[in-house]
């Protein structure tokens, strides 16, 4: 059967209308994988997966990636009674790529909406392939060989500019990672590796480094490269973590917003 699809913007985001059982059977898996790389973000409106069905669907698309503690379903919420590490998720309000502390980042995340906030809590995405493609030849040449130090602790200062020293030390213990600013994928495509973890361009003066990283973030998140998903309970969204950035729009931490995440294991190292 042919998938029914609807492009949500010209450069990123496609809605997929498919029968739940067909999705769980895996018969559309190859096409979904193809669309994921092409479009960056796929939306399955009100498919209403249970946790077990979400896990099964994830397994049709590639190798399942459990959390670091072996957890299968990760509860994305700012409610510390539901997620003991919820405060860490405050960094998700800022543009980022998941897994910049790893040599091989996750391929994709699958997120299903369970409880929503009355205000805020949308998810923004931007296409970092398209953002690179639309740079001028001079802009591409400027950054082609640059490398950037990424640090999980850098995100802390976005939402807690005067952190407790113990919290800072804990975040610093996660480590740092030097990555290319331009990811040359095995497909031949190139994308930008930027976002909240990008701390400093190696070998560049501090002010110039900061200006470049901010300028590229501002460029990549322009409307022509972006899609905002306004959640409805039951929606499932997949995004290609290797060619997009994402962020949640701010919401009341006491609102009970909760989304359930599964992940696909990475298949390609940063290079």
Main attributes of the structure:
271 residues; alpha+beta; Double-stranded beta-helix; seven-stranded mixed sheet; three-stranded antiparallel sheet
Low-confidence stretches: none
- Average residue pLDDT: 96
Query: Which CATH class?
Result: Alpha Beta
Sheet of most strands: 7 strands, mixed
Structural domain count:
1
Q: Specify the helix fraction band.
A: 25-40%
Layout of strands and helices, then pairs:
Elements: E1 4-7, E2 14-17, H1 20-25, H2 29-39, E3 41-44, H3 51-61, E4 74-76, E5 108-115, E6 123-127, H4 128-133, H5 137-143, E7 147-151, H6 156-159, H7 165-172, E8 176-180, E9 182-184, E10 190-192, E11 198-201, H8 206-220, E12 226-229, E13 236-240, E14 244-248, E15 258-264
Parallel strand pairs: 2-3
Antiparallel strand pairs: 1-2, 3-13, 4-15, 5-13, 5-15, 6-12, 6-14, 7-8, 7-11, 9-10
Brief summary:
With 271 residues, the protein is an alpha+beta fold. Helix content is 25%, strand content 25%. The strands form 4 sheets. A 7-stranded mixed β-sheet has the order 1-2-3-13-5-15-4, with helices on one face. A 3-stranded antiparallel β-sheet has the order 12-6-14.
In words, what does this structure look like?
It is a single chain. It is built from eight helices and 15 strands. 38% of the residues are buried. A hairpin with a 5-residue loop joins strand 9 (182-184) and strand 10. The chain has helices spanning 20-25, 29-39, 51-61, 128-133, 137-143, 156-159, 165-172, 206-220, and strands at 4-7, 14-17, 41-44, 74-76, 108-115, 123-127, 147-151, 176-180, 182-184, 190-192, 198-201, 226-229, 236-240, 244-248, 258-264. A seven-stranded mixed sheet has the order 1-2-3-13-5-15-4, with helices on one face. With 271 residues, the chain is an alpha+beta fold. The termini are far apart. The radius of gyration is 18 Å and the shape is globular. The mean pLDDT is 96. The chain has a single domain, classed as Double-stranded beta-helix, CATH 3.60.130. 25% of the residues lie in helices and 25% in strands.
């Amino acid at each position: 059967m042919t998938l029914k699809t609807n492009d949500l913007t010209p450069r990123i985001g496609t809605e997929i209308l498919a029968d739940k059982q067909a999705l769980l059977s895996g018969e559309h898996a190859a096409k979904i994988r193809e669309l994921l790389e092409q479009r960056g973000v796929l939306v399955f409106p009100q498919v209403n997966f249970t946790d077990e069905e979400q896990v099964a669907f994830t397994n049709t698309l590639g190798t399942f990636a459990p959390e670091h503690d072996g957890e299968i379903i990760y509860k994305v919420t700012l409610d510390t009674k539901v997620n003991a590490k919820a405060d860490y998720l405050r960094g998700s309000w800022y543009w980022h790529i998941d897994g910049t502390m790893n040599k091989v980042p996750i391929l994709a995340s699958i997120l299903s909406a369970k409880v929503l906030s009355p205000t805020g809590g949308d998810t923004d995405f931007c296409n970092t392939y398209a953002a690179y493609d639309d740079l001028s030849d001079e802009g591409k040449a400027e950054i082609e060989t640059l490398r950037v130090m990424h640090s999980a602790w850098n995100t802390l200062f976005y939402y807690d500019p005067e952190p407790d020293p113990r919290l800072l030390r804990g975040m610093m213990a996660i480590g740092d990672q030097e990555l290319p600013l331009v990811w040359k994928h095995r497909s031949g495509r190139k994308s930008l590796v930027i976002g909240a973890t990008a701390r400093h361009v190696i070998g560049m003066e501090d002010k110039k480094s900061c200006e470049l990283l901010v300028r590229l973030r501002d460029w990549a998140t322009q409307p022509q490269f972006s899609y905002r998903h306004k959640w409805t309970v039951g929606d499932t969204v997949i995004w290609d973590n290797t060619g997009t950035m994402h962020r949640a729009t701010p919401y009341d931490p006491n609102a009970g917003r909760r989304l359930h995440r599964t992940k696909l294991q990475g298949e390609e190292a940063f290079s």
